[in-house]
Amino acid sequence: QVQLVESRGGLVQAGGSLRLSCAASGRTFRTIAMGWFRQAVGKEREFVADITWVGARTFYADSVKGRFTISRDIAKNTVYLQMNSLKPEDTAVYYCASKSRPGAYEYWGQGTQVTVSS
User: Fold this and answer.
1) Are 28 and 22 in contact (CB under 8 A)?
2) Which of 6, 39, 51 is nearest to 24 (CA)?
3) N or C: which end of the chain has fewer CB within 10 A?
4) Helix, strand, or coil here: 17?
5) Residue 96, number of CB atoms within 10 A of its CB
6) Can you name the residues that pair with 37 across neighbouring β-strands?
7) What distances in angstroms separate CA 78 from CA 56, 63, 110, one per listed residue?
């Protein structure tokens, strides 16, 4: 089992920045990738970005490319999401996730609220 704990989100004005972090504990030695997803009110959860543990390959949703940056610190078993040029449509609960094999993400954090005011 892997436990994921996200940092607190927050309220930020449009155009501002925010950084989220997610620390993993437990059976982290099998991690092959970690990522971020988000869910806005009334919408389905959607992929935001993820990063492979080996090679640090990154993937982004089109809606955040050029504004968000995902990174990881293997020694700390932590993944980060730097969010710049935030827009009101980025408002959502952000979830951290990890996986130990190809396919769907297996482990999820509790979620953290990010609110962007216009």
Assistant:
1) no
2) 6
3) N
4) coil
5) 28
6) 47, 95
7) 13, 24, 15
What's at 62, amino acid-wise?
Answer: D
99, 106 contact by CB (below 8 A): yes
- Distance (Å, whole) CA 111 – CA 59: 20
**Burial group, residue 110, by CB count within 10 angstroms (0-12, 13-18, 19+):** exposed
Adjacency order of strands within the sheet including 78-83: 2-6, 18-26, 78-83, 68-73
CA angle 6, 65, 79 (to 5 degrees): 25
Taking alpha carbons only, the member of 4, 2, 6 closest to residue 81 is 6
Q: What is the pLDDT along the chain (118 residues), one digit of tens a residue?
A: 999 999 999 999 999 999 999 999 999 889 999 999 999 999 999 999 999 999 999 999 999 999 999 999 999 999 999 999 999 999 999 999 999 999 999 999 999 999 999 9
Give the DSSP letter of residue 86: -
